[in-house]
TrEMBL record:
Protein name: Uncharacterized protein
Matching SUPFAM superfamilies: Lysozyme-like
Domain TtsA-like Glycoside hydrolase family: 9-90
Cited InterPro entries: Lysozyme-like_dom_sf (IPR023346), Peptidoglycan-bd_3 (IPR018537), TtsA-like_GH18_dom (IPR008565)
Tree of life domain: Bacteria
Gene3D superfamilies: Chitosanase, subunit A, domain 1
Domain Peptidoglycan binding: 94-176
Pfam families for this protein: Glyco_hydro_108, PG_binding_3
Length: 182
C-alpha cells in the first residue's frame, strides 16, 4: 500500500474547502481543520491551503506519528483502514480500535497476551498483530478489518445519537468510510 495513494484517496473523499455550521472542526480544506493547519505552521486562508501542505500533514500526523507505516509492513489493508479512520476520528481512536479487536480475537489470550488499550501503536501491539496474522493468515486480516469497521460504525452511530447535529454527517460517514469497503 502506497502512502501517496492513500493520501490522494483521503483528499478526494474529504473534498475541498468546507465550513459546515454543524461541524465543530470549523473551516477545513482537504479534510485538514484550520486548527491542525495552524498547529503545523500554516498561516494563510484555508481556501488557499496548498495540496502539498495537506499531504505533508497527512503523512506526518496520520501515518508516521501513529506508527501505521509499521502496521503496513505486516498488514497493509489494516494500515490503510487505520489511516482513514485516524483522519476522520483521530489516530488514538483508530489505534484503540486495532487493540480492542486484537484483544477480542486472541481467544482468551491463548494466541498472545491481551494488550493494554493505550491507543498507541508500539512493540506489543505490533507483536500481537504479527501473532494474529501468523495464526490466521490473509483471511485473518479480512476479519480484523471487519472488526475495526464494526467498531468504527458503532462510534458513528453513537456520535449521531449523542449530538443530533452529527446526523447531518452520519450518512456520508457510513457511505464513504464503511459501505465503500464492504
Amino acid at each position: 500500500m502506497d502512502i501517496h495513494e492513500l493520501i490522494g484517496d483521503v483528499i478526494a473523499r474529504e473534498g475541498g474547502y468546507s465550513d459546515h455550521p454543524a461541524d465543530r472542526g470549523g473551516p477545513t480544506n482537504m479534510g485538514i481543520t484550520q486548527a491542525v493547519a495552524r498547529e503545523n505552521g500554516y498561516g494563510g486562508g484555508m481556501r488557499q491551503m496548498p495540496r502539498a501542505f495537506a499531504e505533508k500533514i497527512y503523512r506526518k500526523l496520520y501515518w508516521e506519528q501513529p506508527g501505521y507505516a509499521f502496521v503496513a509492513e505486516q498488514a497493509p489493508r489494516v494500515a490503510a483502514e487505520l489511516f482513514d479512520t485516524g483522519v476522520n476520528m483521530g489516530t488514538s481512536v483508530a489505534s484503540g480500535f486495532l487493540q480492542r479487536a486484537l484483544n477480542a480475537l486472541n481467544r482468551n489470550q491463548k494466541d498472545y497476551p491481551d494488550l493494554k488499550i493505550d491507543r498507541m501503536i508500539g512493540a506489543r501491539t505490533l507483536q500481537a498483530l504479527g501473532a494474529f496474522l501468523a495464526l490466521r493468515g490473509s483471511a485473518g486480516e479480512t476479519v480484523l478489518l471487519a472488526a475495526i469497521e464494526a467498531l468504527q460504525g458503532e462510534r458513528y452511530i453513537a456520535l449521531a445519537e449523542s449530538r443530533p447535529a452529527n446526523e447531518a454527517f452520519l450518512y456520508g460517514w457510513l457511505a464513504s468510510r464503511i459501505a465503500q469497503n464492504g
